[in-house]
Amino acid sequence: xxxxxxxxxxxKQKRQAEHIEEGYEHRGVGKGEAERRAWATVNAExxxxxxxxxxxxxxxxxxxxxxxxxxxxxxxxxxxxAERSAxxxxxxxxxxxxxxxxx
Length: 103
Prior knowledge:
The chain is mostly helical. It has helices spanning 11-26, 31-46, 63-71, 74-77, 81-102. The mean pLDDT is 85.
């Protein structure tokens, strides 16, 4: 667990953070950074620990989870068709060259 007492978080929030962390790690983010981002996302969605006090029962905001998926592709949409095509050809050539090296 990251720094800080997580006892005020519900089991559901802990599962959410674990799942989000796995997603970040799958995309190549380091373990510590993935954990930090995961808890930041859970806090943004649920408003922090919900186990006791007046924070219980408030609606969850799923915007922070959706945000990440929308960010990708913005750079590509700003480029012309010719630039995108050239980039795709370059990538294909690199993949072909690497495949030949491997055998």
